[in-house]
Amino acid sequence: MKNYLFLAFAILFEILGTTALKYSEQFTRLTFSIVTVLAYAAAFYFLSLTLKTIPVGIAYAIWSGVGILLITLIGILAFKQTPDLPAIIGLILIIAGVVIINLFSKTASH
């Protein structure tokens, strides 16, 4: 179970890094640029810890899928970026994929 906690930290740091990246304005704002680099480093560190017990494809699918969903929500709330219908459908398919992997894949349970 600890491995999924590490995966959650990896996702949270990736979200922080991506949000800070937006605020860094192409790395022209030093504070946000530093937060971006440190958050991504922490995200990859925690992701690496999950790979001790979760297969790389499964961990990456969860990490990227949940990350895409959360950063989209941040984009909507913080940056007023409204996804169109194809984007919403794509997000639903990503969520469905992550749910299917976690509920039904025997690979995910190793």
UniProtKB/TrEMBL annotation:
Top-level taxon of the source organism: Bacteria
Keywords: Cell membrane, Membrane, Transmembrane, Transmembrane helix, Transport
UniProt xrefs under InterPro entries: EmrE-like, Small_drug/metabolite_transptr, Small_multidrug_res
Protein name as it appears in the record: SMR family transporter
Predominant subcellular localization, coarse grouping: membrane
Pfam families, per the entry: Multi_Drug_Res (PF00893)
Topological relation to the membrane, as annotated: Multi-pass membrane protein
Keyword Membrane: yes
Subcellular location per the Swiss-Prot or TrEMBL entry: Cell membrane
UniProt organism field: Pedobacter punctiformis
Residues passing through the membrane, by range: 30-51, 58-79, 85-104
Family indicated by similarity: Belongs to the drug/metabolite transporter (DMT) superfamily. Small multidrug resistance (SMR) (TC 2.A.7.1) family.
